[in-house]
Design goal:
By secondary structure, this protein is mainly alpha-helical. It has 2 domains: 3-219, Rhomboid-like fold (Up-down Bundle); 241-280, no CATH class. It has helices spanning 3-11, 19-36, 38-42, 48-52, 58-61, 72-92, 94-122, 134-147, 163-188, 191-219, 225-238, and strands spanning 152-155, 159-162, 267-269, 278-280. The strands form 2 sheets. It has a two-stranded antiparallel ribbon with strand order 1-2. A two-stranded antiparallel sheet has the order 3-4. Strand 1 and strand 2 (159-162) form a beta hairpin. The two termini are 48 Å apart. 22% of the residues are buried. The model has no long low-confidence stretch (mean pLDDT 85).
Length: 290
Amino acid sequence: MNWMNKLERKLGRYAVPNLSRYFVAAIVVGFLMELMSPQMLDFLAFDAASILHGQIWRLVTWVFMPVTSMDFFGLLFLFCVLMWGSSLESFLGTFRMNVFLVQGILLSDIGGILFYVITKLTLGLGMPVHLSTYYILMSMLLALAMCMPEAEVRIYFVLPVRMKWMLVFELLYLAYTVYFYIKIGLQQYGGMLGLMTGFMMCAQIVFAVANMFLFFWFTRTRLGRQQRKRQKEFRAQFSRPRPGSGISQHKCVICGRTELTNPELGFRYCSKCSGNREYCEEHLFTHEHV
């Protein structure tokens, strides 16, 4: 049992069902706040400098930042997020879904503050990182693809594609996006300043993807030393026939003799023949290669 299972046994009863829906609701509320008073969002956005000066509410309130406009495609995105969240929660369970999303928020907070501090110490200029939940919510689709790689989805409800290929395409696209932003930063400023500027523009992509891979690394099952020993012994038992079963482990493909009928013979595989073709010592060097 890994530490995630132990944590779930202790804290699982406190998990919030359908947490992804609250993220969608926060985005809608943030959009309404932007319509009524755009200046209000300035007090909610992530700002490492303000956080370090005591405005700690910004560690959480940046989830209200609008990630899309409320047009047809924006509403379609939020509808897809609801479906992804429901499907991923049914696969992972409520507690692990909470861990996935909350870990994404915490990792983004830590990464944003560390980036500000590092650039402040190295460049003398603390660079702010803009954070929103867009890529954290998008990473739910990538997590679904990792959980169900052979499942089929229909892009725009028409084009069928396996989720494993969609995962590969999306990761390549995000990697290209990170490369594109860093390239722009290097072209504009060059050196360390350009590199940090490029990373500043794509930081939330890096944080979201890192959160997804860290989550699956943390939740994988790890075997102890005794468990690995028993697993190795179990596999070794089934890799060879049981004594007295009458089943041979070696057989010459030419004469058909086995270690049971002729225990004095040795058997070897031919490296020049295709497939796993085994020969007795009398035919090992005299057979025709296949």
